[in-house]
Task: structure prediction
Amino acid sequence: MLLLGLAVHLIFFFIGFVSHTSPVTLQHTRAIDDYFSTGLVFVHVIISVLMIVGWLIFMLKNNAFKNFYPNSGKKLFFEYLQYFIIIFVSTTFYFSYMTGFRLFINYKYDDEKMARNIDVINRSVPFLSQDLESYTLENRLFPKEFSNYYCETDINKIEKDKKYFVYHNRVYQFFSLYKKTVTNRDKRGLFLYPEAEKKSKTALAYYKDSGDKKSRTYFFKKQVEDLSLYIKTSMPSYINFSSVFYDIRNNPSNHIRKYRYENNLSNLGDEDLLKKQQAFINKETIKVLENKNSQELQKLMTDFLAISNEFRIANNLNSKDWSIMVYNPDKFEVRTFIRKYQTKLDEKYDPNKSPDGYYDGAETVAVIDSAAATTDNYLDENGEVKQDTINVKDFNPNWDKEVSPKNFFKNNISDYYYYTSDLKTLLENVDTIKNDDFFTDAIHLYIWIAFALAIFIFSFRVTDLRSLLFSIISAGVIILVVTLFCVASFFIFKFNSIFFVFYTILGTGLIILLLPFISMGRFPKIFSAIFMIISMIGFPLFILLIFGIINEHQVADCRSQVNIGKINYENCKGILDDLGLTASYIMLILSYIFLYFYTGFIKKWKALPE
Amino acid sequence: MTKHQQRVRAVFHFFDNKDTVLGFRKLLDCAMDTQDMTIYKTAIELTDWKEKNPEKSDELIEKCKNFLSEIEEVSVKEYPTESPVLQSNQIQKSYGSNRFSLGPVSLEIKKGQVYGLVGENGNGKTTLLRILAKEISHNKGELKYQFDSVPKDEFDLRTKLVYIPQRTEKWYGSLKDNLKFVLSNYGVNPEENETRTLMMIARLGLWNYKHLKWNELSSGYKMRFELARTLLRKPEILLLDEPLANLDVLAQQVILEDLKAISNSVNNPIALILSSQQLYEVEKISDKVIFLKNGKYQDNEIKPETENQNLIVEIDTDNSREELLQVFQTFKLEKLNFNGGIFVAYFSPETEFSNVLSALGNSKIQVTYIRNISTSTRRFFVE
Result:
């Protein structure tokens, strides 16, 4: 049986290895879940059921224990262990599939190669002008002045007498900043606003909370800085592009996310680092452009398209036409846009819409000409300035005669397309599959499935079907009675504490555990059998209950200290929080120890006359 | 001459008289007593040869005699059978108030003895066997077992009490595999397991059926399989519930003969209690016959003071009661019962059975069947 199980594991390993040989299969979100989404899990379930049923048919043919062949408690325990191992092996094909899958991804998309590819991709994507907003002036981060200064885009906060830049109805002004960090909170638990700035009404650029939420840093505007030396145009330009298309750090695996969550770390990663990377992309883009060498640009694009073809990303670009499209010295303004997907005949291109057959909303990061996506609140949803605010004409007298950004985008969209969302999804999938700890995430589910099935089969083997069925019915009745008792206690005696419920269940559990010992020889054999089976099946839950009670006591004790202001509410953690999933392993080991010793009792019970 | 040698000598006589059927079975009994794997292997080879060459009886006799000489050389330790292996003292079992109650039953049995348990349906035979096997509890009295090794616990005790119910459970796979499964549970190594299994198959006449499955066997062979399975466990007590049910007359005789021989082994005797409706057949092989009526115990050794030592004769005839009364005019006939087509005549104790036979013969009474049941438990049935 185990050999058959191992053979099926090998098959699943092979399926995992070959399932994603085509890069196209990695171009939908969460390819890591393909085992479930493609229905392979159903094949798994069917094979598992067939294997277990087949094994049971053979295994149930003989029963040495029931026939009173010589047996020891140890032998009985190892019999149970055999069931556990066989069921575990027959139900865990997922791990073999994922191991095969990961091995293939590690082999085909090895880290070194992918690092090179991502570098080329990140340096090429700036020239894939698929939206307008990424190319506007406020995006620029290089040279360092742009990183250090704050770009004000709120038309109401512009200092008209200082240097500002205008693009159609948008105004940009750069401010140097100074910061102030506060750690004190008011009565409502909110951070205090610096008094001096409140009094002097110094304009606030923005604020940022620390990762551990212990402090808040306010960034105040110092003065307007003139960056006209660097700014050749206020129109959308490739020079302004500063987005990191793909960064592995923005795609952490589940256990990193969990670790960050448990340690109160921001899930967004280090913002300063991200900004540095963005500035680097900006610098690289500017470098390529300012070399004024269209051949170099074309070479980069050729490399990018080669990678795209290897990854089978749908596009109709060629490096020659693309470089001509982009290469526009000295200002390198964006003249033409590339579609995110191929439109059908008579289909209107909508940059916010996902192409047919794609998960809607998969990629709507960059929203073209939609002011709603920006933080500015003076523009309406069409990107037009709201009335009753400041007059745009003060900044750009001819703005209403100019082509709006929205129309500019519409007028200049080319027939070229490139499925950037697919590229990003593929890269994300590759990293997710490489890093995701699928084993730790799923192992407990399979362990407990195997435990439960094995204990059911074992109970049936040592007793009989009648006892097993009666024990299931009795367990249901006991649960019902305990629930009714707790509810009745709540209404009649007003016992509403969670501890009352916990201790009632604990008491019931103890009685159930003791009943087989007390009743043996005094009551009918089936009576002991029922509680013996419930004890075996319910023991892990009994351990969990004890953990739960300890946990609740710890939390309750901690919260009583919160009231006197010593500890933060969120820091109240109990044994279950500390142990996490380790509790599952502890439960399993304790259940094994329990069963090891309990087999002696099972033997005694079996020897009882009817 | 040891008991083993005496038995071997007796088997020689069977072959001298060309009685190969019973002789071969007795030969295998002697071979089994040796507990010698080399002897076992030879016995297995001989059985195989015998089954393949049924017509070569002279050659078989020759081979058997040679083999017997080999067996005779092996020393077999005789097992002492003085102390009882099972003692029950006044055990009683009742099912609720005013319902069936069994006992009190007191009995003791030694290894090598065969006890028959008879009685009409619903009189507690199965209950008594199950109590003795500790399958069900009893209300009063005491049960004592005395095995070669003291059982470690209750479960260990149960492993030694082998009870075969009337309706045995279905088994799966081949007959041989099922037998091997038994020995594997006793930790017997694979080679010895194969040898012992085949030996048992040979002994119980299952040689040509060893690869068959449960549903391919007749009731008789199923019972033989159950016996083989049980005997491989080397039981010290064997409790059989109606082993003769569903068997034809010949099969009954053969199986009873086998049971008697196996339980009477020189070095591995078994205390055997079997229940049955086949009174005469059981009486023939039993050391004691226990009769249960309404749960009350009686056996053929008890001579209650109240019971006269009458000559009780069972007669099946087409003649009338009057004709019989006329024949027995000169005898001290106490009563003549007509019981379901059979007459039961009760004579005074001094009456000779042979005289009864002469009288019937002289009067030309058409007797289909006649039997002296004065000491048989049959008399309890016809009362």
In short: The two ends of chain A are 35 Å apart (CA to CA). Chain A touches chain B at residues 61-62, 64, 68-71, 603-604, 606-610 (CB under 8 Å). The longest helix of chain A spans residues 525-562. Chain A is about 55% helix and 5% strand.
